Amino acid sequence: MRIAVLNGPNLNLLGTREPALYGSDTLADIEGRLRVVAAELHVDLEFSQHNGEGALIDAIQGLRGRVHGALINAGAYSHTSLALRDAFGAVAVPYVEVHLTNIYAREPERRHSVLAAGARAVVCGFGAVGYELALRGLVHVLAPRS
Ligand code: CA2
């Protein structure tokens, strides 16, 4: 099984600023821990981070026929981008939406996600470990064990 892990705008800055909000792990730290979980679950991962909406759309379109599912933290585009949701719909790749923070406990403009309606599941508020939980959950729903 192959899973893509997509990160959106500014998440390349993780661990360098705003640690009280987003934690002190870098994106590379998160990816390293996901690799450990992936080895345990016998799945292959691919990682990418894009600051631009168009680049994220291109990345999602490129998943078609290559991966079984995706994790995505689309950052602030989560709250605005129907285009990202449309891209996932077009490629028919099941995805789990991930957020480091509990977006429902933040400013009003962050309390709605346009990606959520198309997501297989949403994990938010667990910080960096949320990515690991999301990977375990996605693999479980794609290949349930008895
Ligand atoms: O909680 C999340 O994971 C978010 O997707 C993070 C986004 C934010 O716009 C969403 O509302 C919720 C922001 C990511 C920016 O990350 C930074 C990391 C370090 C310093 C500054 C920003």
Strand content: 15-25%
Q: Give the end-to-end Cα distance, rounded to a whole number of Å.
A: 18 Å
Strand ordering within the main sheet: 2-1-3-4-5
State the shape. globular
Helix proportion range: 25-40%
Q: What is the arithmetic mean of pLDDT?
A: 97
Task: Describe what this molecule looks like in 3D.
- The chain is an alpha/beta fold and 146 residues long.
- It has helices at residues 19-22, 27-41, 53-61, 82-91, 129-142, and strands at residues 2-7, 44-49, 69-73, 95-99, 121-124.
- The chain has a five-stranded parallel β-sheet with strand order 2-1-3-4-5, with helices on both faces.
- The longest helix has 15 residues, at 27-41.
- Bound molecules: ligand CA2.
- Ligand CA2 binds at residues 10-11, 13-14, 17-18, 22, 73, 75-76, 78, 99-101, 103, 110.
- Ligand CA2 is lined by residues 10-11, 13-14, 17-18, 22, 73, 75-76, 78, 99-101, 103, 110.
In brief:
This protein has 146 residues and is an alpha/beta fold.
Keyphrases for this structure?
146 residues; alpha/beta; 5-stranded parallel sheet; 5 helices; globular; binds ligand CA2
Secondary structure: elements and pairs:
Blueprint: E1 2-7, H1 19-22, H2 27-41, E2 44-49, H3 53-61, E3 69-73, H4 82-91, E4 95-99, E5 121-124, H5 129-142
Parallel strand pairs: 1-2, 1-3, 3-4, 4-5
Bound molecules: ligand CA2.
